[in-house]
Amino acid sequence: MFMKVVIIGAVAGGTSAAAKVRRNDENVEIKIFDMDYDISYSGCGLPYYIGEEIGNRDELTPRNAEFFKKKYNVDVFRRHEVLKINSEDKVLTIKNLDTNNVFNEKYDKLVIASGARSIILNIPGVEKSNVFYLRNVKQADKIKEYIMKNKPKSVVIVGTGFIGLEMTENLKNIGIKVTLVERFNQVTPGLDEDMAVYVEKYLKSKDINMILGDSVVRLKGEEIVNQVVLQSGKTIDTDFVVMSIGVKPNTELAKEAGIELGINGSIKVNKKMMTNIKDVYACGDCAESYSIITGKPLYRPLGSTANKMGRIAGDQLSGGNLEFRGILGTGIFKIFDMTVAQTGITEREAISEGYEPVICHNIKTDKPEYYHGKEMIIKAIADKNTGKLLGVQIVGYTGVDKRIDVFITAITFGAKVEDLFHLDLAYAPPFSTTKDPVMYTGMILDNAINRGRKLITPDELNKLIENKSDVTIIDARVNKQYEEVHVNNAINIPHDQIREKADELNKEKIIVTYCNKGVTGNAAQNILINKGFKKVYNISGGHKNYKAQTK
């Protein structure tokens, strides 16, 4: 007897599940029902299609229903909405959105890959025709058509996550003035604040107007929106609005069927992508993930995760044994020439989870400066008690993707900070420095956790200063650099004079050393520790990072 698999939703999760079922079993009947016009597309490529980086729409939608029928013998039905799941009788009620015909479809095994949709603010004006969201190709078409027809000069983008900033770049590049509105006090809310400041500074250099710590409460205009009203009372004149404040899972159908929901309303699944109802699986942006680090539920809808989940669901329901191993919440995007990447947990998440985090800011070039190396800032978070790496955030220009992937691999396999130095990474001047920034990050954290070379963040130092703690701050740079700019109340003892002047310092006081980026500050710290000083800290990331953090 042939098995019949029905999949609700296509795109990444649903089509991956279908493909895996077919690879495992040639005799299964497979049907996919999807509400959209386009069943397989690159959602991450949509901003670049709008910004004319991608000229041909077909490049975003390479696979259609005919492709899946021919290659996988899968029947795909576009513009079909599943209205009800009857899990007892294993029957779906389905509506053809083009003909309004309603019919029933039986299944033996069901996969829910219903995805997610944009969050819509409950404020006046959101229904206007020049307020856009970007979740699928049709929405991208509407934005592109509006721009071509109306030649807008300005846009307000609400939200500074991945899509918001990718849209910022692409709209700016086609001559549209961009204003960003973010309800948090920083851009890129997924980053820690001390890394977001680097992105903010760069956006300012690109003439992007940013309004932070404020929310949109009304969109004004008669027929179309021409003014955005903020909670603070500020108003922004605009030609159109792009809302990019996040997504929520499409799980109403699952909930009505008695399927258990988890974090953020996503479908609760086990490692086999099974729901609480027999023979019903879920995958993709509608399903719950879990953190490799904490083991706790996590909702991070990304195409890469959806593909992985779909493959596992398809394998399990057709006799395989693949299991989901969790995620780190990894993300990467570019904004003009800058690349921003992150993986694992942030500093604030580490604190809330009960870890005792050790933080380092490593400022290094991706390759030698003589071979066009460009600086990147790596923030790494480790657990003091276990020495394990918990998370990494990188802001830079070139080579960021390479480093974040090494950190991801290390965290996934439970690496300790001391292990990073021992990695046999590829080196040649066109590609890296002799001690790669990944290795150097491990060295800094190993020194801090295991070798008594403690770090102090700019925020921690400023709190000491504000509390009028008895602390001596030593600028270990040359006199000229000190005179140009230095930390308030710092004294200048250049590195080559530390040994001879160490006896003039009080060994009982807290001493903080620093240089430009941290290396010479660490050298000065080493000298003092070796001379018997007990409470010596080096500023994480040196004066360069301190200056960026101190307003």
Q: Give the distance, in angstroms, between the N- and C-terminal Cα atoms.
A: 71 Å
Number of helices: 17
Percent helix among the residues? 25-40%
The CATH architecture name of the largest domain reads 3-Layer(bba) Sandwich
Radius of gyration, taken over Cα atoms and rounded to an integer in Å: 27 Å
Give the helix/strand class. alpha/beta
Verbal overview:
With 551 residues, the chain is of the alpha/beta class. It has 4 domains: 4-116 and 248-317, FAD/NAD(P)-binding domain; 131-243, 3-Layer(bba) Sandwich (FAD/NAD(P)-binding domain), CATH 3.50.50; 337-450, 3-Layer(bba) Sandwich (FAD/NAD(P)-binding domain), CATH 3.50.50; 454-549, Rhodanese-like domain (Oxidized Rhodanese, domain 1, 3-Layer(aba) Sandwich). It contains 17 helices and 30 strands. Strand 24 and strand 25 form a beta hairpin. The protein is globular, with a radius of gyration of 27 Å. The model has no long low-confidence stretch (mean pLDDT 95).
Short summary of the structure?
Keywords: FAD, Flavoprotein, Oxidoreductase, Redox-active center. InterPro entries: FAD-bd_OxRdtase, FAD/NAD-bd_sf, FAD/NAD-binding_dom, FAD/NAD-linked_Rdtase_dimer_sf, Pyr_nucl-diS_OxRdtase_dimer, Rhodanese-like_dom, Rhodanese-like_dom_sf. By secondary structure, the chain is an alpha/beta fold.
Brief descriptors of the model:
FAD/NAD(P)-binding domain; 5-stranded parallel β-sheet; alpha/beta; 30 strands; 4 domains; 551 residues
Write the topology of this structure.
Layout lengths: L3 E5 L4 H12 L4 E5 L12 H5 L14 H8 L2 E3 L2 E7 L4 E6 L5 E5 L2 E4 L3 E3 L12 E2 L4 H14 L3 E5 L3 H12 L3 E6 L10 H13 L3 E4 L3 E5 L6 E4 L4 E3 L2 E4 L3 E3 L2 H5 L23 E3 L6 E2 L6 E2 L4 H15 L13 E5 L2 E7 L2 H6 L4 E9 L9 E9 L5 E8 L3 H13 L4 H4 L16 H14 L3 E3 L1 H9 L4 E5 L3 H6 L6 E2 L5 H4 L8 E5 L4 H12 L5 E4 L2 H8 L2
Parallel strand pairs: 1-2, 1-7, 2-3, 7-18, 9-16, 10-11, 10-16, 11-12, 26-30, 27-28, 27-29, 29-30
Antiparallel strand pairs: 4-5, 5-6, 8-17, 13-14, 14-15, 19-20, 21-22, 22-25, 23-24, 24-25
Helix pairs in contact: 1-8
Cofactor: FAD
GO molecular function: oxidoreductase activity
Protein name: FAD-dependent pyridine nucleotide-disulphide oxidoreductase
